[in-house]
């Protein structure tokens, strides 16, 4: 008899735990729309990320295969992050649209929020080493629209503030802002509700619009919140990132075996692996310096492999787009070059097969001459088996 009671107890306990798990699962928010291709979460879970002010990336959760959103919001020391840059932290009031346009507001006056460290966050979807989408929360209310955002703050604090925004030219109030939030230390989910009110200006036929904006704290599981995915990268860029993310990076030995000791009339004076170019973190590169006998001419260059690091191509792709904007294809050059007054040198960028790029600087060498030297490097040979 005791054995039967014990078995019944175990079955009841198991049923209770299963119900609790199902209940917990049902409270998770879910993505409302479904995108095909690389953003089809039914094939694999998608990571949600954000980049910190120091450049480091953190994982904030994931979209699971059934479309539910699982947040994994990490705690961190936001003050220490800003102090390590060093970078001035954002003005607390401006994060809630309370600025110099507010009536009777002295932006230079000291407030109790001046030493508060806080920041707004968007949730990005990362895949193949690239941020390819944004997970956006919004409302579908046709009368009042609402936007939502994650907010991180270094302390628990009560924030109550009102602001009437004034048009400097006419003196009319065009927006009333009200914030009433009891912040918890760390992560808070904030709702910004916007109501548009039509008003009759001074009794005539001119109708103006007044925005009423209210900031409050809510929860991501609130039924008002509709979560949707928005792709922010072109399909072509995503496919390039996918290809780069799945190729084997070049080795130090491959770089060194390829690097020529002589480049036309110049000889190598520096040959090192893993010394990152300025402003970049990719250590899979080779740094070469070539000079002539009189040391009047010098070329300092990096050849960088973007395998596993597709984001490294963003800078050079942007440079190509800027230089070739509005040009016919016949007028486009295979490289990007400009003369730097600061360094008194010609800067040249060149990419190979959307994987490698050359970042070169030439002293006493113009763009055409520097390009001739780079062609003689035969960088494409690095990709030959």
Describe, in plain words, how this protein is organized in 3D.
With 385 residues, the protein is α+β, with helices and mostly antiparallel strands. The chain folds into two domains: 28-238, no CATH class; 247-383, Protein Transport Mog1p, Chain A (3-Layer(aba) Sandwich), CATH 3.40.1000. The protein contains six helices and 19 strands. The protein has helices spanning 2-26, 78-84, 235-245, 252-258, 313-323, 367-377, and strands at residues 46-51, 57-63, 69-71, 118-121, 123-127, 130-138, 145-153, 157-166, 173-183, 186-200, 207-218, 226-231, 262-263, 266-273, 285-291, 298-305, 336-340, 345-352, 356-363. Strands 13-14-15-16-19-18-17 form a seven-stranded antiparallel sheet. Strands 3-2-1-5-6-12 form a six-stranded antiparallel sheet. A hairpin with a 2-residue loop joins β13 (262-263) and β14. Residues 1-21 form the signal peptide. Keywords: Signal.
Ordered list of secondary-structure elements with their pairings:
Blueprint: H1 2-26, E1 46-51, E2 57-63, E3 69-71, H2 78-84, E4 118-121, E5 123-127, E6 130-138, E7 145-153, E8 157-166, E9 173-183, E10 186-200, E11 207-218, E12 226-231, H3 235-245, H4 252-258, E13 262-263, E14 266-273, E15 285-291, E16 298-305, H5 313-323, E17 336-340, E18 345-352, E19 356-363, H6 367-377
Parallel strand pairs: 9-11
Antiparallel strand pairs: 1-2, 1-5, 2-3, 4-7, 5-6, 6-12, 7-10, 8-9, 10-11, 13-14, 14-15, 15-16, 16-19, 17-18, 18-19
